[in-house]
Amino acid sequence: MSAAIVIGADRSGAPIRIDIEELLATRLLVQGNSGSGKSHLLRRLLEQSANLVQQVVIDPEGDFVSLADRFGHVVVDGSAYDQAEIVRIAARIRTHRASVILALDGLEIESQMRCAAMFLNTLFDAPRDEWYPALVVVDEAQMFAPAAAGDVADDVRRLSLAAMTNLMCRGRKRGLAGVIATQRLAKLAKNVAAEASNFLMGRTFLDIDMARAADLLGMERKQAETIRDLERGHFLGLGPAIARRPVSVRIADVETRARNVVHGLMPLPNVAGSEMEDLLLTEVSMPEMAPRPAPVPEPVVDAGELLEQIEDSQPLAEQVERPVEPSLFEAEENASAIVEILAEMAVEPDCTFQPAAQLFQDFTVRCRMARITNSGIDLAAFRRRFAMAIAGIPDDKAPQWREIVALSADVPDDLLAPFLVLAVAASEGAVCPDDDRLAEVYGTRSSGRIRRLLDHLERQGLIVVRTDYGGRRSVGIPALGLLTQPA
Predict the structure, then answer these.
(1) Across the 487 residues of the chain, what is the mean pLDDT of every consecutive 10-residue run?
(2) Per DSSP, what are the bridge partners of residue 238?
(3) 4-261+302-312 CATH choice from 3.40.366.10, 1.10.150.390, 1.10.540.10, 3.40.50.300
(4) CB neighbour burial string for 59-71, b if at least 16 within 10 angstroms, e if fewer
(5) Which positions fall inside the Helicase HerA central domain (predicted)?
């Protein structure tokens, strides 16, 4: 099972997917001229992944606030709060994993840059135990990470550029995955764009932008002309989360729309020229003029109330109904489902070569999809349960595995899977696992590391390695009096 979403289809109609787990580790850059469909693409990405991962949207035009009605995002109006309140709100977002849209359309460009910088820096500086995975989507990224000085003050530009650089260069280790969209690559700072490993390139016309897009997609310069011919809503995708070779993507439909935006033509008013002239130029006497009601400003949410709203928000993926009184049967059912999830993950190719934090994130997503709201397993416990699953031990409750699991309590987490594989083989009287099998469960391709691993386990008194005259190896577990068959 993979946390992948369908972003669109290729020329033949086959679905094109984005792996959200891979995207969290490798980031995404979207480029296209105005009207190419960037906002539509970002909206599709946000809608489809809303139930998988926390989302933070930096929205300079207020295009994405409509997501709140459908997916429960908290809308933060950047123009309604001062710097200290923005910092407190951003800190609370990290703590409570709320999906948020920072709407900046009520601010001037310098204020937008300053507000976004303070917001992003607070997300970046969160305590280590709050480094939860989150997609951070920045629309019109060239405004916040300009390639050259412009009309804004230099200190504001440096502050905003530093925040964007932190997001794209160092945010991954803090769980922040940058998704940035820009109209022109030439206007976006190179050190920000270079950190993305996934690309979706839409229609663009300037030679310099086409050349840079072609370079990022691994295309020859003469092929760059094809980028100019892309239709609206069509993109060329490449990257570990999308495809290993450039693929054409037609972005699929979305469920929500931007507010107060009319796409296409509208009928003109059916008013003759003289009548329109009277409407525009003729003075209207005050007694005959109907009183026009004063515009009612939209209520501004108080900062304290907004903080409470963020605290009360619940990630969409966790909004499942819980039974009033959990039963013993339900607990057993959850435990059985967790065993199945771990077993499925353990047989996936190259699973042991992935970082433990990434595997744990995959595990939590699978649990939520299986409607397990609280697995009771943290990262440390997951490392050991996953190592047991690799070795074929479903849990530590079965009598035949109890002694092996108890013996492994003092084995370091990174050595646990190879030790358990050897212990299980010895308990079953099976053939000793070879170097390739041990390297696979250890997450390495070096046979030298396996030899050093066996030497280390033997020095710790956990195993005894024997080699007969025929060069066949067997491994014993002295504490349990078990021995594998030679191989």
Answers:
(1) 80 90 90 87 93 92 90 90 91 90 92 94 91 92 86 89 91 91 87 87 79 73 73 88 88 84 68 75 55 59 74 59 47 80 86 81 79 77 87 77 83 86 88 88 84 87 86 88 87
(2) 199
(3) 3.40.50.300
(4) bbebbbbbbbeeb
(5) 10-90
